[in-house]
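Format notes (please read before filing issues)

Several people have asked whether sequences and structure tokens are stored in separate files. They are not. Every record keeps both together, in the order shown below: the sequence lines, then the token lines. Line labels are part of the format and must not be stripped during preprocessing.
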Amino acid sequence: MSNDHQGTYTAIVTGAGAERGIGRHVARKLADKGWHLALIDIDGAAVEAFAAQLNEEKDVQVVGLGLDISDKAAVENAFTVIDEQLPPIRALVNLAGVASPHTLFELDDATWDRVMDVNAKGTLFMMQAAAQRFIANKEGGRIVNTSSITAYDGGGTFSKTGYAAAKAAVQGLTRGGARELGKYGITVNAIVPGPIDTDIMGGKLSDERKQSMSSNIPLERVGQPQEIAGLVAFLVSDDSSFVNGTSINIDGGKHMV
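Then the structure lines:
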């Protein structure tokens, strides 16, 4: 895999449907770097419209697919479509997720299952399908998963216990995947965002809420989606070829190891 030949490769980005989400910024960044794109979101209409927009704006091929990543059969079908319509897959960016404001005693079976299914099981299914293709093509690949600093601190102003558990599971999947897939030239890493100004935070953040959330961040502000996109672009590039099995905090210094 070479930065000079990304025009012959496809990157899959999940969670690319939300207008104010990280996925759209990542998609634009990767398109600017010459990646063809398969964009996935549970909101099929939104992701298909965004894919059509990028097809007009960028000199790359873009396909949008409506998909619940926690449905394994649907994931397999989506990958078949991607195989048929786009160049070989060389990168997977798992951004799709659902938040949960429920406290420990508020968690019921349905809430727990949905949070774990999308954040953890969906990440697993996407990793399995992508890695199988990376291995078959014998050219390596990049997988980037999305955890959260909630996995470290157990919850914050919005997402709480169930989300923290799911995002901790993502880090386990990342390390396990990195250990098992490294011999095939496949790297698996996780980004660990702190508070980011997106809709997953419960809607557009007011200035007052941003200030409150920034009180224990050394940079004294919340992050922006385009800042996440820059880190992801690095992790799917050749510049990150010896970065593997790690979880990289991108939180303005909120959580320091």
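For reference, the curators noted about this record: The chain has eight helices and seven strands. The two ends are 32 Å apart (CA to CA).
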